[in-house]
């Protein structure tokens, strides 16, 4: 009997969308057939909040975010657009985007990034737009943008 109740509760949780996460209270979200668009523009965030797993686009511009966790994209496999410019990010660990295979746009400009390690963007075959201007980057390795055959604008 307890197993049946547990299973029914699990089905209720799935059907109400609680499993996929909810919109952060400081942000606004809209859902459509592509998933969730999350707008956290200028919300004075110090870190990236928990986001709905069906997030396809997120705007985190003009916050005080200092890092992007390595596990960032595991929770959001549909992520296509990441706008995280004008924050205080100083580094991007090599495996940060390894699970972000669908990403097409990354805006990282106006941060504090001093270096981008080789192969940081290696898995991003769909990436078309990468903005890293106005950071503290002094040099780049020749393998920094390897295998980015769809990149239109850097």
From TrEMBL:
The keyword Signal applies. It holds the Pfam family LRR_8. Keywords: Leucine-rich repeat, Repeat, Signal. Residues 22-57 form the LRRNT domain. PROSITE patterns: LRR (PS51450). Residues 1-21 form the signal peptide. GO terms for cellular component: extracellular matrix; extracellular space. This is LRRNT domain-containing protein.
